[in-house]
Amino acid sequence: MRLSSCHILLAFVLTAIFCSPTLAQGGEVSADRAYGHVENLVNIAPRLAGTAAEAIAASYIENEFQSYGLEAWIENFTIEKSYVVEENRLRVISENSTSYNVMALLPGQSDEIMIIGAHHDSVLTPGAVDDASGVSVVLEIARVLSTENLSRTILFTTFGSEELDLLGSEAFVREHAENNIVVTIVFDSIAPGPDNGLRIGLRDSQEVATTEWLDAYAQELAEDLGFFVKSEHLSAVEGYSDYASFTRAGIPGTWIYWVNPQHGNILWPIHTPADNLDAVDKVRLGQVASFGTQLVQQLAGEDLGALRWAYEELPLILAAFTVVSAGAVVLSIAGGSFMRYRRGWSWSRAARVFSFVTAAVVAAAYIWLLA
Asked: Is the dihedral of CA 324, 329, 335, 339 positive or negative?
């Protein structure tokens, strides 16, 4: 799609106004500021991958990151698909074009990297919810944490070409395979919805499922902050996001989003003309940005191996231990009854022998499970 010169000029003017280096670093999360980012990105829409509009959006985001005092840059990548609009309909053709990933580095005390991301491209809509909302959350988290010295390095990233089968995040994973990336958190589609709309994670096959121990950790923090939260199944959401490029590469990842459980399409209005500024809930943006900031701060200092053990392996160990222990008790009762009625043992003798057997089996199971 070719943009008019007026459209491009307006976008650059907005970039100059809102990307001034006088913007404050650090401080508290501002829902108004987050909403302002959505408004500015909607003014550049549609931000189709590989078009001038996407390039303008990428420049806007890079300048915002730099205004927080962060080192920021854009990485270009080639996509073998391009958008064309014919009779107000979007069509994808096989033609090379350039798309963009935007990055900003917050150095930490180690070389372990946490990716905090969203995607800045859209389909043929204003793309307010999908995913200017997620970009605004990432920008607010970056601004608030820009003066922090966290235990891990944070790489704030907005991906291009998410709407083209996650091509941007796939390019990122290939390009940065040598980096020590330990976890990925993606914010995509903070849709309007009631208080019970916060979702963390996606359940499905391993192909697009998020990492369960990471979901559980983030959900526990959200609950501690007073949110109702749960995961959704792929069949309810009918989509996934850039975290999948990381989980497919063996890197833990989760997806944070907001839904309307009372709507037939819980992520409405994404991919519809109604995905405009009117659909954005400023309160939800502020809530997710505040939660995301606390999540990044806390997770940056955690022992991820211990978290995985606590949220993933320990429940399995406890379940197996419970099954083995229950089985040992049942077998002991059955054995004691057999020896009492068939061999003439006294109840006290049978109880002593089989209590010892039960204890030995349980102890052996405990040692084996922890080995």
From this structure: positive
